[in-house]
Design a protein that fits this description.
heterodimer; A: 370 residues; Butyryl-CoA Dehydrogenase, subunit A, domain 3; 53% helix; globular; B: 395 residues; Butyryl-Coa Dehydrogenase, subunit A, domain 1; 3 domains; four-stranded mixed beta sheet; four-stranded antiparallel beta sheet; 10 strands
Chain lengths: 370, 395
């Protein structure tokens, strides 16, 4: 048992950090996010050359064949750099669901193009007047064709493939197929565009829905890790600012009211990281507590992502409230990620189903006078 | 990262699990009603049993009575103790702080003399750090020791000394040079609590019991060979002890919290709320799930810290997040227990309607001490701010 990163994992993390720092500085993030799709094809080609687009796919399908731990380390670094565009939706959302649900023939038709950087993918789940609870899904396929609407679909405008979670199973459709309508939603996070996707009698291929839980669990953990990266960057910015900004003749970081906020940001960031790493490990190894660990990672990251952002802005004072400062870009991403794949309240209820509803022998034997 | 046990770890776990299966005392948690002293005697006997079975000091060197196993096996030990609902060990200060300090800084003679008896609970330890005027500002302490021949002569007063009433020995930090800056003139020494001139007075706390003591030293003679590390370099030794305190205390706490949250979940199924079990109340479910999650995150934080320690060899200042986490989490856990139990939460042991022999009313009061003892939350945040994040000193 070892809870530290191994040598190859450290190399992957460090090289991803270096790569994103060089290729994706904040000026680039802002510029790219001002475009309608926040997608830069030249950068995407570099992701493919790095092996990022095929990181979890088997080598047989042109991928790199790495595991969940490596995926979340990559996403953590992407979150730290606030990488714009469809990296998360392709590699960490649609990717793991396809990987868990697709047959070898289906993988052969999707994965090599994604790994080469020639195709992007995304996933549609949420329907109008509903959230991330599968019980609220209404869309079903009729004769292998989909009709209905999915909301909050990330990066749909640049996707070639859309994975659709319907009431009666998991489907894949061509995003450019006739009958697919893609409309931007005006949302807070400029770096990851969201879309309403309507389906009007769209041909779709059915996948084996038995892998959906695992695919979504990996996506949820990857999102939690991406959020940790954003928290880390927010913490770093706040600490740097607290060291240099002076009031009353001293750096504001010498005042305990400020310093203790930084300490809390550190505690929340590290704890979110521990939870995400643990969840990734349980998924990697098929541990019995994986479902609980994933919900724990996402519920903690959802709350901590918000509070770390709150504290980061407060420490920056008026500067933190400006458009010019980068903090709000992270803050907006944190809010979007907080609700994606279920917010803290949702995952607390998921966890309650696992740990409160599970009736144990000891519970039955205990009598309480009360 | 790898959650799988190595074959050595698996063998260790299986052996331990089998041993615990036949040795863990039954129904020990119902012993709350007995006195602190009687309960302590029970925990001492339990530690002795563990020691004789070869299960005390998992990661301590073999030549001093430990098992010479890895830190990860130590973690497995805590997990197995938790799932077996085993009682904690009595010699908390000796196992968690004094022992690791002696292993890191002590002489060969000190290791041979003291370590084995810490593990067997034959000698119970306390820690003489805080003073009436030196709490968070520990280095301001005034107890002093002057060299007289081959002995130091100690005068002064310590306070908040846990287990002072049971202790055979004390890891004491005193001022040996008042002429230099405060951090430079301190020395750590091991003091026999039966030495003439030591007086221990119980300190009654808000729970009503006297877990802590005040210890007075009047011309107490301590042989120079009992100095740990070098004379006037006691600050480094003290910090080493405190870092162990922040890390290892948490490991034991996690075991307790896991048991407590599981117990609260059990209770929630039997307590009625609005005509149905509280476990079906959406608000209670949210509260229980949040607490359960935090108990698991506490363990994940600890596992990461242990992995780091097993590569660096020593706990670092980031251990302060463990201290903040366990202390504040326990306060939240106890608050949730109170919300769940409603009016029954206030009942103390002995009342026929009390839940779990009054454990929850006691726990609620006791938890207030958690964010004060072993370094206040404020000091831990200062440590993170300055030593981890590199912010300027705030004091």
């Amino acid at each position: 048992m070892q809870f530290g990163l191994n040598e190859n994992q450290v190399i992957l993390r460090d090289s991803a950090r270096e790569f994103f720092t060089g290729e994706c500085p904040m000026a680039f993030v802002r510029r790219t996010s001002e475009s309608s799709t926040a997608h830069d094809p030249a950068l995407w080609a570099k992701f493919a050359a790095q092996g990022y687009t095929g990181i979890i796919f088997d080598e047989a399908y042109g991928g790199v064949g790495l595991g969940v731990v490596e995926l979340i380390l990559l996403m953590e670094e992407a979150g730290r750099a606030l990488v714009p565009g469809p990296l998360f939706s392709t590699v960490a959302l649609a990717g793991p669901v396809l990987d868990a649900c697709a047959s070898p023939a289906q993988k052969q038709s999707y994965f090599p193009a994604i790994a080469r950087g020639d195709a992007c993918a995304t996933l549609g789940f949420v329907e109008p007047k509903a959230g991330w609870d599968r019980a609220d899904l209404r869309m079903t396929a009729k004769n292998g064709r989909l009709s209905g609407e999915k909301l909050f679909v990330p990066d749909a405008a640049v996707a070639d493939v859309i994975v659709v979670v319907a009431r009666d199973g998991v489907y894949v459709s061509d995003a450019k197929a006739p009958g697919v309508g893609i409309t931007p939603m005006a949302s807070m996070d400029q770096t990851r565009k969201l879309y309403a996707v309507s389906f009007r009698d769209v041909a779709a291929e059915k996948l084996d829905g038995g892998g959906l839980d695992r695919g979504l669990a990996i996506a949820t953990t990857a999102l939690a890790a991406e959020m940790v990266g954003g928290m880390q960057r927010t913490l770093d910015l706040a600490v740097d600012y607290a060291k240099t900004r002076k009031q009353f003749g001293k750096p504001i970081g010498s005042f305990q009211a400020v310093q203790h906020q930084c300490a809390d940001m550190y505690l929340e960031t590290e704890s979110a990281r521990s939870a995400a790493y643990y969840a990734a490990l349980t998924l990697q190894e098929g541990a019995a507590d994986a479902s609980a660990a994933v919900s724990i990672a996402k519920l903690y990251a959802s709350d901590a992502g918000r509070t770390v952002g709150n504290r980061g802005i407060q420490i920056h004072g008026g500067m933190g409230f400006t458009w010019e400062n980068d903090l709000h870009l992270y803050y907006r991403r944190a809010k979007a990620s907080e609700t994606m794949l279920g917010d803290a309240t949702f995952h607390r209820e998921q966890l309650a189903k696992l740990v409160v509803d599970a009736v144990t022998e000891s519970a039955r034997s205990q009598e309480v006078r009360c | 990262m790898d959650l799988n046990l190595t074959s050595e770890e698996a063998q260790f776990r299986d052996e331990l699990r089998a041993w615990l299966g036949t040795h863990v005392p039954r129904d020990w948690e119902h012993r709350r009603d007995e006195s602190v002293q009687a309960h302590f005697a029970f925990l001492t006997a339990w530690q002795r049993t563990l020691y004789e079975g070869g299960w005390a000091g998992i990661s301590w060197p073999r030549e001093y009575g430990g098992r010479g196993a890895s830190l990860m096996q130590q973690v497995i030990f805590w997990q197995e103790m938790a799932s077996a609902s085993a009682p904690p060990m009595a010699n908390v200060i000796g196992l968690g702080m004094v022992g690791p300090t002696i292993i890191a800084f002590g002489t060969e003679a000190q290791k041979t003399r003291f370590l084995r008896k810490i593990l067997s609970a034959e000698e119970i330890w306390c820690q003489g750090f805080s003073e009436p005027n030196a709490g968070s500002d520990l280095a301001a302490l005034q107890s002093e020791a002057r060299l007289d021949g081959t002995d130091f002569v100690v005068n002064g007063q310590k306070v908040w000394t846990s287990f002072g009433w049971a202790a055979d020995w004390c890891e004491l930090v005193v001022r040996t040079d008042p002429t230099v800056p405060k951090h430079r003139g301190l020395t750590v020494m091991l003091v026999d609590m039966k030495s003439p001139g030591i007086e221990v007075r119980p300190l009654r706390q808000m729970t009503g019991e006297a877990e802590f003591t005040e210890v007075f030293f009047r011309d107490v003679r301590v042989p120079v060979e009992n100095v740990v590390g070098k004379v006037n370099q006691g600050w480094d030794v003290s910090i080493g002890t405190l870092m162990h305190e922040r890390g290892t205390l948490g490991a034991g706490m996690q075991v307790t919290y896991q048991r407590n949250i599981e117990r609260l979940i059990e209770l929630s199924r039997t307590i009625q709320r609005g005509g149905r079990p509280a476990s079906e109340d959406p608000v209670i479910r949210q509260r229980l799930a949040q607490c359960y999650a935090e108990v698991q995150i506490m363990r994940a934080n600890q596992m990461r810290a242990f992995s780091r320690i097993s590569t660096t060899g020593v706990p670092g200042p980031e251990g302060s997040i463990q201290k903040i986490f366990w202390s504040e989490l326990n306060q939240r856990l106890q608050q949730i227990a109170q919300e769940l139990l409603g009016p029954y939460g206030q009942l103390e042991g002995g009342d026929p309607h009390a839940v779990d022999h009054g454990a929850w009313s006691y726990g609620y009061l006791r938890a207030r001490g958690n964010t004060i003892e072993a370094g206040t939350s404020e000091i831990q945040r200062n440590i993170i701010g300055h030593f981890v994040l590199g912010l300027p000193r705030s004091y």
